[in-house]
Design brief:
globular; Aspartate Aminotransferase, domain 2; seven-stranded mixed β-sheet; 2 domains; 12 helices; Aspartate Aminotransferase, domain 1; homodimer; about 375 residues; alpha/beta
Chain lengths: ~375, ~375
């Protein structure tokens, strides 16, 4: 085989996003065994950093050894099952995935479908949840496929009012947007490493409220997926360190360093930087004649900007021109939004004023 | 947080094993998107390398984005379910895990329990399978917890005679021992990256015979685990590259380079080297008065040597002395073998004559 020689890409898509040099450096460090005390020190550092980005003092903060979708399925498989009703607020591709997983794990799934580009209001959520009376309610905090930010309280307040547990997909918010899981009323939150945390994909952080931990402990039947069984995970990572699986050591080194960078910048500073770059990007891209897909500025994710493909533009050719000419990788739309939107990520090391300048200039030149 | 500064360990345990420098180097390379054509080139290189180590021309050779245990659960969840009978040959911890997964996924599980340290004979397997008539038969090729090598044909011949599908855990054999899945009659084989392939943990290679692919295609109900759904995985990795999950790009870079090293050495040369080092280790450790746990030399795994803890020896203190004095990490026993055996791995870059010398000297000094 020839030498591994990846092209240099500027990852301005919905994720994976640019990896920080310090994170790459961490992955060259010698691995230790998965039961080595040093590994558990690293794991504790990771938990400390995750508490900061989740904005929580939850005692349950752990990591699934799989990508964000594995974290999603762990959240579903441990809390949803036969005889239970799962309500999902669906405003895009990823919420649809939660609904599909709920069905696979045997729950009765009811959906509240929203027009793409919109979020649920508390009035809508209250009416829907009071009618359906689900056991578990799931939604996406920042919907990667549309660029819509959901106010968690609009859903978690009426959900808790009927005694339901809440699950929030925080894959696109973690590390770049405030989550504050407890204040937001989220019982189960999961994320990923390859967006706001500037690490390669491969792990999924997950946190549970005390109420969710109680639900977990009260389970008499083991969760349907052994690999994602949060009870077994707890026994491995805490207390006696009873062997579960062989943790991906190197990915944890990377995550530790990604989180260290976030904490050194300051979590709030980092969130503010992403807001500023988002606002600057929107200002400049609208000035160039583009239209944002999410019309309400308050409902836009600051890390992923969805933009209408202008009339007469070939989106595939335009994205290819950006890659070929500048190595700039931006995303397209999924499913019914295919060829209708671009998705432009401004995350981590790429969320700087210089990059916004360079990116907008390149987009104006290549998108036609 | 302080700088990440892992202790240097010589990983002579059951895995993870030492990572080759070229693999560390690969993980510093820039990541690309999970739908980037370059990523799929890397993926095809990985598949080519995996065919060599699995010893197969199977068209289905893929990778699960999780550790070996995720590959195990993918093998179970896609082929075993309610209304089906799964027979498991249990001679150690990992076969027991397959049985547990079978139960979680709703199958009726029957076990053929063997004394620890022994493998099943064809006579035993035939008698058991003819009596039980299972739909699927699972076994562990190289049982990490005991050091026992199972002759696959002793199980797959009688399994196929009754029309059952066969699953083999090849976590500890892949990359260091010949598997030859088709000649061995294995329909579903899964492995890991962190033992014979000298990569960090995090991915699980999997291959299916044409018969297993037919079973998969004939499924009308989707597999119980979305993340491990092999049909969805096929759609992502082949043909239209329909998005499934965000593949852990960096882990694939590492695996590509780990496989490139294997292929450059020559698969057969690598297997032969592991046999030679194993034989040399056994000769020297027996000369030093230790006793191998697996009495039949033909049933010993060449990569993991299980050794009785000598009378009067404190195994925990001895292992700690090896770490403290030489940075040498060897494994202990699990469950009923806790404190009864040591497990010594000789894999990849550590499987050299100099290392055998150094290791045996250190063990003789520290184990007391």
């Amino acid at each position: 085989m020839s030498n591994l020689n990846p092209p240099r890409r500027l990852l301005f898509g919905p994720g994976p996003s640019q990896v920080a040099p310090r994170v790459y450096e961490a992955m060259t460090k010698s691995i230790v065994g998965h039961l080595d005390p040093f590994f558990f020190e690293v794991y504790e550092d990771v938990r400390t950093g995750l508490r900061a980005v989740f904005g929580t003092q939850n005692s349950f903060v752990q990591v699934i050894s799989g990508t964000g979708s594995a974290g999603m399925e762990a959240s579903v498989a441990n809390f949803v099952g036969p005889g239970q009703k799962l309500a999902v607020f669906v405003g895009g591709f990823f919420a649809g995935r939660i609904a599909e997983m709920g069905e696979r794990h045997g729950a009765t799934v009811v959906r509240f479908d929203m027009p793409l580009g919109e979020a649920a209001t508390e009035t809508q959520a209250t009416e829907f949840l009071n009618r359906e009376r689900p056991d578990v309610v799931a939604f996406v905090h920042a919907e990667t496929s549309t660029g819509v930010l959901q106010d968690p309280l609009a859903i978690t307040r009426p959900a808790h009012a009927i005694g339901a547990l809440t699950i929030s997909d925080c894959v696109t918010s973690i590390g770049a947007l405030p989550i504050n899981v407890n204040a937001a009323g989220i019982d189960v939150a999961f994320g990923c490493t390859q967006k706001g945390l500037s690490c390669p994909p491969g792990l999924s952080p997950i946190t549970l409220s005390d109420a969710a931990v109680e639900h977990l402990r009260a389970r008499t039947k083991p969760s349907s997926v052994w690999y994602m069984d949060l009870k077994l995970l707890l026994e491995y990572y805490e207390g006696a360190h009873r062997y579960h699986h062989t943790a991906p050591i190197t990915s944890f080194y990377a995550l530790r360093e990604g989180l260290a960078l976030v904490c050194e910048e300051g979590v709030q500073n980092r969130f503010d930087r992403h807001v500023r770059m988002h606002q600057e990007f929107v200002r400049r891209i609208e000035a160039a004649g583009f239209r944002m897909f999410v019309t309400d500025p308050a409902r836009r994710i600051t890390t992923i900007n969805a933009i209408h493909v202008p009339d007469g533009v070939d989106p595939v050719k335009s994205r290819k021109a950006l890659v070929d000419k500048y190595g700039i990788d931006i995303g397209g739309g999924y499913a019914s939004l295919a060829n209708k939107i671009f998705r432009v990520g401004l995350m981590g090391p790429l969320a700087t004023m210089e990059n916004v300048d360079m990116l907008v200039d390149a987009m104006v030149e290549c998108i036609q």
